[in-house]
Structure formats: C-alpha cells, structure tokens
Amino acid sequence: MAAGGGGKNVPVRGAEHGPRAAQHDGMRRDGGGDPYWSRPESRVWTMMLLLGTCLLYCARVTVPICAVALSTHFDWDKKQSGIVLSSFFWGYCLTQIIGGHISDQIGGEKVLLLSASAWGFLTVLTPLLTHVTSAHLVFMTSSRFLMGLLQGVYFPSLASLLSQKVRESERAFTYSTVGTGSQFGTLVIGGAGSLLLDWYGWESVFYFSGLLTLLWVYCTCKYLLSEKELIIPIDYLMRGLSISKQTKVPWKQLFKKAPIWAVIIAQLSTASTFFTLLSWLPTFFKETFPESKGWVFNVVPWLVAIPTSLFSGFLSDHLINQGYKTITIRKFMQVIGSGVSSIFALCLGQTSSFCKAIVFASASVGLQTFNHSGISVNVQDLAPSCAGLLFGVGNTGGALLGVICVYLAGYLIETTGSWISVFNLVAAVNSIGLCAFLMFGEAQRVDTDSAYMDL
C-alpha cells in the first residue's frame, strides 16, 4: 500500500527522495505498480472517509443548528447572526489551495487526520471558553473563522486521495458514497442536536460533535495507520510547505484551458449556494413555521439526500461503463444537481404549507447531491495528478462567494422581511455555474504536459 494511501504496517523509506518519491515507491511495493486500492481496502477507506465527512458536517452545522438559541442567549439580531455564520467561510477559503497541494505531496489521509484532531478539540472547547469572555460576538466569530481554517483542507485532501487511489470507472460512486457523509452528518446533528438542544442546551451540541470527531481520529489512526506513518505528517508537512514555494506551477498553461474555468465557476456556484441553504434553512423553518419540530426540518431533507447521492454515483458509473461519454454523464448529473434543485428552491420560497416546504426542501437538498457525480469528480477527470490543488482553487472561490451569499441572505431577510429573495439568489447563482459547465466542460486530462506532471 502506498505511503500516500495510508496502508497499515508499510514502512516508509528513502525520506531523502521527497514526499512524492516515497509515495510512488509505495505504489511499486503495492503489487506490480498498481497505484489503486484493492476492493477490500477501498471498502474500509470509503466507510471511514464517509464517517469523517459525517463528523466534519456535525461540527460545521453546530452553529446553524443552534443559531436561534445563540441569538437569544447572546442577544444578536439577524445581521449579527449573519456575521457569525459567514465568518466560517472566510477561514474556509484560506486553506483550500495549500491543503490540496500538501495532500498531493504527502497523501490526503494524513492531512485529514491532522485537521480533524484540531477541529474536534476546538468544537469541545468553544462552549467552555464562552464563559470566560464577555465579547461573545467577537469570540464566536473568531471561533467560526478558525473552524473554517481547519476544515478548509478536508475536501481538497479528499479529492487528492481519491484521484490517486480510485479508478476512474469507480470514482463517481466512491465520491458520492463519501459525499453522503455531508448529508448524514447534517442529519445526525439535526436530529440528535435538536434533541440535545431542547434537553440540555446549546453547549451539549458542541460537546457531542467534538468528542465524536476525536473518537474517529483515534480509531482511524489505530486501525488504518502504522506507528511509523503517524510520525510522518509533521516532517512531510514542512517538506510540502517548502515544495509549494520551490515548485513552479504552470498557471498560464493551466488556466488558458476553458474546461478548468468551467469546473471552477460551477464549483464555486454550487458550493456557495449549498453553504447558503445549510446556514439559513434551520432559521427559515423556525421563523416561518414556529410550531414545527426542529428534528423534522433538520432531519428529513438530509435523510432524503443520502439515497439520492448514492443513486447518482451508481447511475453515473453504470452509464459510463455502458459506453456513454464521461463528459455527457457529468453534464447530465450537473443539470439535475444545479438546475432541477434550484426549481425546488424557488418553490420553497412560495409555499405557506409546512408539509410542502419539507417536500421542496428535501427535493432541493437531495438533488444537489448529483453534483458529487458531476463537477466534484470532473476535477479528478481533468487533472488527477494535482486534483487536490485544483479542487482547492475551486473551493476557495466557493467559500469566498459563500461568505457573500450567506451574509447577503441575512441582509435581504433583515431589510425585506421576506425569504423569497434568498431562494431567488440561490437559483441565480446556480444558473450561472451550470451554464458555464454546460458550455465549456470537458472530461479529458489537461495535466499531461511534462512540466505539469513533474508536480
């Protein structure tokens, strides 16, 4: 098993050859030069990464779930809540590119575990530290900013890891399966978090999420990595940082290619609208339908999203294996993920029925998961040798636009008193990204130039 792939009990040799050399050396030892995971290895890592993604979102959604309680407890208005909610994305955008680049160098699983350890501790400590400060708005804004910094490396690292270890014909289903962790995590924290919030207060939601994350890190380190591999990340992290300064990345060649811009624009559009819904849907239901139960609207949409994500991955890989062009399937999935889901988002702003609102929200959130089989794996189609870095570029744009959209949504609600403008914003941004991808998206590799392969 490759050192970069996280195989157990495989010694890493030749540190003097650099992180990439050690990684390729590991590939040669893993059975005849095949860099990909075997089926048993793939199943284990897929399940662990699914759980990791689940816990990522458990930690990420703690503040949106507790937004109303926090606003009441600290006496915040909508604009102040918007500042706290959007501050996550300021931090989130800063570590995307460097996280993806380091993952391309040392192996994505190492970066994932380091960041998860840090955000787990931060989540546990947050409610404790609110008792020792009176500047609650400043503290919670800073805490969310730091959370964004730590979680920003996750998906670029995941893209890097899967592009190196999963075959193209299996990537959509693997990524979709791992991607269900985002819905499953929101579902878990939406259900358990709502109950904990009602029973024990908002602090218990943070403790629940943070402690589970630390348990996941412990189990992953214990059962999937050897002791020698656990020492590698700190040393290789410094190597990765130095490489990022020394390596001449051919940005001109890379960004002259229309497919790169197409997938980046589509990615930043879908990421920002997803963040907007993730941040404001709990407040929308709480204020529009005050008698409704939190565990219903915080659970049902994300429960629906799990099977739709799995189905999109299965359908995508099946159609590609049947002989359909990869880019045709990627675009088809994106039409559903960005286009059809936006229609249901628009319907959500027009209804006054709680049951219909649940149906529309479930359809919108559920169909967004088709993005996992569209643009999310298209980055790996275009540049598997540097997928982490490119994914980081796209997600940086998504996070920056997410800051604007999340704050703008709060501003629109505060000034207009209507939620319709928020869902119109979601649909408009999605449409821009979808049009760019349909016009210019491709699935052929663009990283085959020798100068770029040396990365």
Provide a descriptive summary of the structure in words.
The chain is mainly alpha-helical. It contains 22 helices and no strands. It has helices at residues 19-29, 39-60, 62-65, 67-74, 78-92, 96-106, 108-129, 136-151, 154-165, 168-200, 202-224, 227-246, 251-254, 258-288, 294-297, 300-321, 326-348, 354-368, 375-382, 387-416, 420-440, 450-453. Helix 2 (39-60) runs antiparallel to helix 11 (202-224), helix 9 (154-165) runs antiparallel to helix 20 (387-416) and helix 14 runs antiparallel to helix 19 (375-382). The radius of gyration is 21 Å and the shape is globular. Mean pLDDT is 79; it is low at 1-32, 243-248 and 449-455.
Descriptive terms for the model:
mainly alpha; 22 helices; disordered C terminus; globular; 455 residues
The total beta strand count reads 0
Poorly predicted regions are 1-32, 243-248, 449-455
Integer-rounded radius of gyration? 21 Å
**Assembly status:** single chain
Provide mean pLDDT, rounded.
79
N- to C-terminal distance: 21 Å
Number of helical segments with 4 or more residues: 22
Sheet with the most strands, sense and barrel status: none
Structural class: mainly alpha
- Report the β-strand fraction as a percent range: under 5%
H and E order: HHHHHHHHHHHHHHHHHHHHHH
Shape descriptor reads globular
Helix content: over 70%
